[in-house]
Amino acid sequence: MKNKTTIDIDLDIYKAIVQHSDYINEPANAVLRRLLNLNGEIVSPIHPNLNKSQSGGLMVKGVFLKSGLKLRKHFKGSLLEAEVHNGFIEFNKEKFKSPSGAAVRAADGSVNGWIFWDFFDETDGTWKQLETLRKKRKSAHNK
């Protein structure tokens, strides 16, 4: 185990770290290691920016959906559920490479998967529209 220390940072610095995260719940230490090029971790040959602990997730349009991320939608009186595993979104025992692919199958029609699905945000224990992850990624790149 590496030596650790605690530092005090301004709220603005903390917000910047959160905005630079590649996936939901990425630890601040991992964000800083990546931004400061201090990673000595094994990287995925499929996605060189992903370390070993991030494998199994899915990168879609620059947004990393971590393995185990739960998705759901209340739709026409039913609760539809999907989950990210091994580079796919799994819904009804089928595998999809995008939220929209899974959503089109779930809705049996053309829909935007980023708006269709809600994800479980482990940081605050609430369900949020998947689009919030894409908006977070866009706002981080615009700064």
Notable characteristics:
143 residues, 24% strand, two-stranded antiparallel sheet, six-stranded antiparallel sheet, elongated, single chain
Q: If you had to describe this structure to a student in words, what would you say it looks like?
A:
There is one protein chain. With 143 residues, the chain is α+β, with helices and mostly antiparallel strands. It is built from five helices and eight strands. The chain has helices at residues 11-19, 28-35, 99-107, 113-116, 131-141, and strands at 58-60, 63-65, 70-75, 78-85, 88-91, 94-96, 118-121, 126-129. The strands form two sheets. Strands 6-5-4-3-7-8 form a six-stranded antiparallel sheet. A two-stranded antiparallel sheet has the order 1-2. A hairpin with a 2-residue loop joins β5 (88-91) and β6 (94-96). The longest helix is centred in the C-terminal third of the chain and has 11 residues, at 131-141. The protein is elongated. The relative contact order is 0.12. The model is unreliable at 41-48 (pLDDT under 50).
